[in-house]
């Protein structure tokens, strides 16, 4: 039996290892000030969502991440051997194959948020925080104070692209690009002394995004198809709207589509099937979590598609009638990270197949190698 939506949202957030407030560019500019060595030398100054700066004197040796999003970035930056623990660990099969083995060895300090005492006693000298002031996710009032971090010798830095959306200074406009995520990659590269690798990662993202932008440049806004992210794992009784401040809105926009719930000023919001029917999307993403194997993940996609075809409220939708389904995992769509750029390419290749070439399945951002989304509507 699937959970009710209120529980479903929390479960989805926990299982996707993403924060409720995932707006890009929502807070102050994710700036990095590097002194002495423009290639990434120390000290490095980074700001939190309120603009308060922290000075990092040297590369950290013992890193703890609040969730799988931060952990994955550390692994991709080449700092994985310095990660001594994480909260909200990645689900089976959800990390990219190249870093999955190393990621599996990272100790889990909390199945959800890391308990305050365990975090302060971890021996870390850097804590990478995805959540910011969100008590339900283990941040804010329930987490350590800045004074307690300092007393424990832990420097506290944020992923601004995810931690700032719920703050008073957060931008209210929908997030439409991946600039905030790219800047977070650079910030963490500077903080960990892996600036060169960070630039490589950002260059790879920009190459993919640039190719898609060029291919879709002549497509007018009004001709871009409408798109609904069906968060199957959050429950089917009441759908969850993926709103304008969620990273998925940027992914969808960059892919040349229009999120049907871009106008709701939040990241996720409980919706209704009546709302979905009223929007009548051209395409529906079957957003399921990676089950850890190609077969199990394909089965989950099949179950999500079968639900939409059999549910009275949705079986008459245009996308359902035309078989316009995008089989693309939740993790690469709703979690901020390097793989968002490949998700853009996959969605664009599905909804604009005449303009954008489908990516190489061997380089799919989904470790379980889910079916090519360009073929999923057949």
> Which blocks of ≥5 consecutive residues have pLDDT under 50?
1-39, 134-141, 363-378
CATH homologous superfamily grouping of the largest domain: Nitrogenase molybdenum iron protein domain
Tally of strands: 14
What does the radius of gyration come to? 20 Å
Order of helices and strands: HEEEEHEHEHEHEHHHEEHEEHEHHEHH
Shape: globular
First CA to last CA: what distance? 29 Å
Helix content: 25-40%
Multimerization status: single chain
Figure out the total of helices: 14
Average pLDDT taken over every residue: 84
Number of domains: 2
Can you list the strand order of the major beta sheet?
6-5-4-7-8
Major beta sheet summary: 5 strands, parallel
CATH architecture level-2 label of the largest domain: 3-Layer(aba) Sandwich
| CATH topology descriptor of the largest domain | Rossmann fold
